[in-house]
Amino acid sequence: MPPFVSGSRVTIHDVARHAGVSHQTVSRVINEHLSVAPSTRQKVLEAIETLKYQPNQAARSLVTQRSGTLGIVSFGLTYYGPAQMVVNIERAARLRGYGVALTSIPELSEGEIERGLLELRKQSVDGFLLVAPLRGVNTERIRSLCGHTPFVLLDAAETGGTPGVTIDQMSGGRLAAQHLLDLGHEHIALLSGPQRWHDARLRLEGWRAALTHAGYTPVSVLEGDWTAASGFGLTQELLASRIPFTALVAGNDQMALGALWALHERGVAVPSDVSVLGFDDIPESRFFHPPLTTVRQDFAALGALSLAALLEAVESPREAQALPTRVLLPELVVRASTTSPRRT
Amino acid sequence: MPPFVSGSRVTIHDVARHAGVSHQTVSRVINEHLSVAPSTRQKVLEAIETLKYQPNQAARSLVTQRSGTLGIVSFGLTYYGPAQMVVNIERAARLRGYGVALTSIPELSEGEIERGLLELRKQSVDGFLLVAPLRGVNTERIRSLCGHTPFVLLDAAETGGTPGVTIDQMSGGRLAAQHLLDLGHEHIALLSGPQRWHDARLRLEGWRAALTHAGYTPVSVLEGDWTAASGFGLTQELLASRIPFTALVAGNDQMALGALWALHERGVAVPSDVSVLGFDDIPESRFFHPPLTTVRQDFAALGALSLAALLEAVESPREAQALPTRVLLPELVVRASTTSPRRT
DNA sequence: ACAGGTGGATCGAAGTAGGCT
DNA sequence: AAGCCTACTTCGATCCACCTG
């Protein structure tokens, strides 16, 4: 029973000695160079196995100028969307042989994003993924902070030529509003997410565009902060204002949940008195009272696609600039929270 | 407008030349060694600033044998608890000057945990945090995989002498059951989380212990998988079985949500016909129909405490073995979903 | 004796050049 | 000529021994 030290104190030379070859050959095997006979290759691999050799990443990246890790700057990991993206990015990265360094920023502001980037730069990553849908981010600023390190923006829409992947939030918004219009609604109130968020802004624009196109204007537009609590509070305000409405569109499913409860407390029936619509399709929304009609977004695909885009840039820097902005389309999921307005 | 290369091609020697000192002095400043006059120190700092010098982490850790990053192996980042922990660990780590490498495992099994550890070892982290509440993890196996690298288990209860931080799930379970007993309930059904999870097991044990102590047994015990869908399905089963019950305890808030909807569909009123109790206190549970009585856990504190424990081990390896297992207590939050059973 | 410079060696791997079988 | 070796350099920072004003 050997003491089995995993502190990685075993070097390439130990492997070489054990296999009876030179360290050069070991290096060739590890990096899959040509000109290694299958038999010696086998010997080396066995030595690596029995010695539990792990190449020293620091030494390696010192000479290769690559760390083999990608950096994610993410906001709101406790929200459904960002968490989904991060998980899927990480999984895809491992499959491609990369590790992931994460920093989550406590507040969605340009300053925090920059801080996040600087932190990750210290860890010397090979590429950045920014899951930070702040409206009006200064792309130039980010580009200069990233320097020669490629980066990808997720969920940012003003991708001024920067490689990026997006879900078309605006068409998602349109989808939602159109659904209500098709049902015959004319008095629609909007509860948006924080307008500093790109997503929130675009969803609102989508809602508005569909309404305008049909010749209507929203009876009320209020801004929340994605939380159920804000959806609850804003709906209370809306009810107190006595503005009549037959449908309520929320910026995300959590806000819709808060709205549902506020309506319930006032004795307003959903959907017979008021239809409610969410956004995201979190797993729970199917079990809201009533089950929520909402717009589904494929965050997993978004994460995976972004990673693919980033790695293209990392591994073949030449074409980095030519990367297209990819766009995913959301999908309407109709459940019991929406119906035609009551005839008056 | 200088081309501003951030590829970190500027070395310690460039800084030295710019500041008119030796590379030795620059190193002394960076590592806060003594014997540097304030004036020269200032000069060096200025040179670092204007050259935008960033020490090369690879070179640094090659000699210091430290990477300055900690590894997190986490399961279920899309769940509220784990996400909270990861975010808080990361934040605390940055404050202490550490970066974070993350790997989330797709499935909660011992094999996956090991894979996660191996992946992180490649990134040569200084310490591990395992957010993986698998029941019966082989601590010895993990210890050997970690080798000389210190590690901390979050949420694992069989911390056989390993440094760990836990929330006392069992007393949380007792809290919940006792609340129902105090209200006068005698026919209580239990909807547990997956029993491979430590948390789920301990909560169930807590519920049972409290009931047993009061002279009762649960009328039914069903096992779900944390999702609202499972809470829904199990509650349907329970109702179909026609076993009478006046209270339902769920393994977490999501399962409670599913249960609420299943009860509602059958015309069972909450809380007047059946009381429902959750676990976790996710932000949304306040807006369930009705607002959910649940057991709050301070995941943020758990994350921060674990990090502190780990860093103690990382920075002063001597006392690593002597680290105590810290335990946090959960708290009951009473809302509208529980009340006394109807007199029959 | 304090503030600093000089000139190394060192960490572990990758890569290069030339040479032997 | 493929397969492998020896010997040396490089990457960037740390740290040491030793010197100097």
From TrEMBL, chains A, B:
Listed InterPro entries: HTH_LacI (IPR000843), LacI/GalR-like_sensor (IPR046335), Lambda_DNA-bd_dom_sf (IPR010982), Peripla_BP_I (IPR028082)
Coiled-coil boundaries: none
GO terms, molecular function: DNA-binding transcription factor activity; transcription cis-regulatory region binding
Pfam families registered for this protein in UniProt: LacI (PF00356), Peripla_BP_3 (PF13377)
Top-rank lineage group of the source organism: Bacteria
Sequence ranges assigned to domain HTH lacI-type in this UniProt record: 10-64
Keywords, sorted A to Z: DNA-binding, Transcription, Transcription regulation
Keyword NAD: no
Database matches in PANTHER family: LACI-RELATED TRANSCRIPTIONAL REPRESSOR, LACTOSE OPERON REPRESSOR
Protein name: Transcriptional regulator, LacI family
Source species: Deinococcus hopiensis KR-140
